[in-house]
């Protein structure tokens, strides 16, 4: 869970678009979950929250309202920013 964004990106970026059309089965390292649906829901929640972590410099809080996010114009400081945005788009569409 500490590296959910990087781990999920690394695993899912290897998957075909056809794989993205099917239900994901999520397993956290060294854990057995009681219910696959609960784990999937938790994974989505943690992953979506991590996407907005300032460490990735992908998004910034909108200075006009302070409650929404905008793409960070400095996201290019992250060498993987284009691939990360693609991954984020697919993940949000799937959620």
UniProtKB/TrEMBL annotation:
It comes from the Eukaryota. Keywords: Transferase, Ubl conjugation pathway. It catalyses: S-ubiquitinyl-[E2 ubiquitin-conjugating enzyme]-L-cysteine + [acceptor protein]-L-lysine = [E2 ubiquitin-conjugating enzyme]-L-cysteine + N(6)-ubiquitinyl-[acceptor protein]-L-lysine. Residues 16-95 form the HECT domain. GO terms for molecular function: ubiquitin protein ligase activity. Pathway: Protein modification; protein ubiquitination. Its EC number is 2.3.2.26. It is an enzyme of class 2 (transferase). PANTHER family: E3 UBIQUITIN-PROTEIN LIGASE HUWE1, HECT DOMAIN UBIQUITIN-PROTEIN LIGASE. This is HECT-type E3 ubiquitin transferase.
């Amino acid at each position: 869970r500490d590296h959910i964004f990087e781990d999920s990106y690394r695993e899912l970026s290897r998957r075909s678009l056809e794989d993205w059309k099917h239900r994901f089965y999520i397993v956290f390292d060294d854990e057995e979950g009681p219910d696959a649906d609960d784990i999937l829901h938790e994974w989505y929640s943690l992953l979506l929250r991590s996407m907005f972590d300032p460490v990735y410099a992908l998004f910034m809080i909108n200075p006009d309202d302070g409650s929404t996010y905008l793409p960070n114009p400095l996201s290019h400081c992250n060498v993987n920013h284009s691939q990360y945005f693609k991954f984020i788009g697919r993940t949000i569409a799937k959620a």
